[in-house]
């Protein structure tokens, strides 16, 4: 019995997905356990894997099968039509990228990851600068190869957020920045009492692991198909349809750092666990964008994990894991988790200042890819812009331009999706509260299933059937705006200032 062109095409996509998942496994190992001396060989491995996956997707036979399957004209709203639309996009992109370029980028990124880790540990930008220059050059070349008729940066942004442009995102961010700065200034009024510090540590990493694992399981992360490990920079990765890995890092003076890292990454993981495992690697079984992905992580981290109800419920477990917390109240823990203060590190920033960190990175990336800024000038440009947006003078590169892993992995175009995710998260949470009248009571009782089920049916199971803005609008019942996000932040600042 002969396979149809569509079935044969899916066979090739599955093969590319298997190769890609091997690459994901190698990346995960590099971040969590690989000895530094293995970097060179790992770079060779990842370069081969990337070139192999690219070869399968860009091969002329893939194009022939794609054209034949499209010629059968499946119904526009069918899974087959959805898959073909996005596979056509993937194929056209892949054929624009020379195979040697794909291999070169993968090799550079693997080597740059280790160089970044060393440079960050030593706060030594010059050690990373040669790699960053090469990465920026490759990003510019990628944008030129992909080209979409707009600005060069648009081609990179579209890799992570289909349909978005640097102009639309830039206008949104320009309107947000002054309103955020006003809120930060209000929260920083000297007359407002500062949150009481946590009782002295240590908060042992082993106890934090117990604490975080129980909470991650309670919100809905399935440990039968997932796990938590330690890395320099927290992340979530999917190695297969039933294999989802989270990482965090531990600070034994403040257990909430790892907690919110886990809640954030668990949000990503639960999105991945909510996709159709039988369609793994296909558009119908894939997340539509990182702005939607980030909406899930930011929703669980902030709209659930930073609420007073969360601390009221989990306080006894916190005291069991960290007995010194018996000296404080759940409200004190809430205030600590919601303290508003200008700080240097993005992943530890509070909700109110967080988007200013993203706006900085977005503006720098636009300038880098557009050629108005060179990689060697990043520290001075970063420090100047950081002072303008957040009012702090950066003291060392480790708390400045070296803090994030994204550029070392070639992730130019990624950062904007964090703030888009914040906007989407607030929009979804507002809609969920209106659609599910008993949701507040469920969250107070530590019952997170109603919220997760709402997200499963409204967001996760859609895969790539709708573009990001259309998906969030359909899930919530209204067009996406920043209004809910700003209202959420204003409510938070008001409660924080009230003590």
* Oligomeric assembly: single chain
How many separate structural domains?
A: 2
Q: Main sheet?
A: 3 strands, mixed
Spatial extent as radius of gyration: 23 Å
How do the strands line up in the largest sheet?
A: 1-3-2
Helix content: 55-70%
Shape category: globular
Strand count: 3
Low-confidence stretches: none
What proportion strand? Answer: under 5%
User: Which CATH C-level class of the largest domain is it?
Assistant: Mainly Alpha
What is the terminal separation in angstroms? 72 Å
CATH architecture of the largest domain: Orthogonal Bundle
Return the string of H and E elements. Answer: HHHHHHHHHEEEHHHHHHHHHHH
Mean pLDDT: 95
Q: In CATH terms, what is the fold-level topology of the largest domain?
A: Neurolysin, domain 3
So how many helices?
Answer: 20
**Helix/strand-derived class?**
mainly alpha
Structure description:
This protein has 499 residues and is mainly alpha-helical. The protein folds into 2 domains: 5-126; 167-498, Orthogonal Bundle (Neurolysin, domain 3). It is 64% helix and 3% strand. It contains 20 helices and 3 strands. The protein has helices spanning 5-32, 39-58, 60-71, 79-96, 99-122, 125-146, 152-160, 166-187, 205-219, 255-274, 290-304, 308-321, 330-337, 351-370, 378-390, 416-435, 439-444, 449-458, 468-476, 483-498, and strands at residues 226-230, 236-240, 243-248. The protein has a 3-stranded mixed beta sheet, with helices on both faces. A hairpin with a 2-residue loop joins β2 (236-240) and β3 (243-248). α8 (166-187) packs antiparallel against α14 and α14 (351-370) runs antiparallel to α16.
């Amino acid at each position: 019995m002969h396979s149809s062109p569509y079935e044969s095409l899916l066979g090739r996509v599955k093969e590319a997905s298997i190769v890609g998942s091997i690459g994901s496994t190698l990346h995960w190992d590099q971040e969590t356990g690989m000895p530094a001396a293995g970097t060179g060989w790992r770079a060779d491995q990842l370069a081969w894997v990337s070139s192999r996956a690219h070869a399968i997707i860009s091969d002329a036979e893939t194009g022939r099968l794609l054209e034949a399957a499209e010629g059968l004209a499946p119904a526009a709203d069918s899974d087959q039509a959805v898959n073909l639309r996005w596979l056509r996009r993937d194929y056209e992109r892949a054929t624009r990228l020379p195979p040697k370029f794909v291999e070169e980028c993968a090799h550079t990124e693997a080597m740059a990851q280790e160089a970044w880790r060393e440079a960050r540990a030593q706060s030594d930008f010059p050690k990373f600068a040669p790699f960053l220059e090469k990465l920026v050059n490759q990003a510019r070349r990628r944008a030129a190869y992909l080209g979409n008729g707009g600005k060069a940066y648009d081609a990179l942004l579209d890799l992570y957020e289909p349909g978005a442009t640097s102009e639309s995102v830039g206008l949104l961010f320009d309107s947000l920045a002054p309103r955020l700065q006003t809120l930060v200034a209000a929260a920083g009024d000297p007359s407002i009492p500062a949150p009481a510090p946590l009782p002295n540590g240590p908060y042992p990493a082993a106890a934090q692991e117990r604490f975080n694992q129980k909470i991650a399981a309670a919100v809905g992360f399935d440990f039968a198909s997932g796990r938590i490990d330690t890395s320099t920079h927290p992340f979530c990765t999917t190695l297969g349809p039933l294999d989802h890995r989270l990482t965090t890092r531990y600070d034994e003076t403040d257990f909430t750092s790892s907690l919110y890292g886990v809640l954030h990454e668990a949000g990503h993981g639960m999105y991945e666990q909510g996709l159709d495992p039988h369609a793994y690697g296909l558009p119908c079984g894939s997340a539509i964008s990182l702005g939607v992905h980030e909406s899930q992580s930011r929703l669980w981290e902030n709209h659930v994990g930073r609420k007073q109800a969360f601390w009221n419920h989990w306080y006894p477990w916190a005291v069991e894991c960290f007995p010194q917390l018996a000296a404080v109240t759940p409200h004190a823990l809430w205030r600590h988790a919601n303290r508003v203060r200008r700080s240097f590190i993005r992943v530890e920033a509070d909700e109110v200042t967080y988007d200013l960190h993203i706006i900085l990175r977005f503006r720098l990336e636009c300038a880098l890819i557009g050629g108005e800024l060179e990689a060697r000038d990043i520290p001075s440009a970063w420090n100047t812009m950081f002072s303008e947006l957040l009012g702090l003078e950066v003291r060392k590169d480790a708390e400045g331009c070296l803090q994030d892993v994204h550029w070392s992995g070639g992730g130019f175009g990624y950062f904007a999706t964090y703030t888009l995710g914040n906007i989407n998260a607030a929009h979804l949470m507002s809609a969920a509260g209106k659609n599910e009248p008993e949701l507040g009571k469920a969250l107070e009782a530590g019952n997170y299933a109603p919220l997760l089920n709402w997200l499963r049916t409204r967001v996760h199971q859609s895969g790539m059937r709708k573009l990001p803005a259309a998906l969030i609008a359909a899930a919530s019942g209204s067009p996406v705006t920043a209004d809910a996000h700003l209202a959420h932040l204003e409510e938070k600042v008001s409660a924080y200032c009230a003590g």
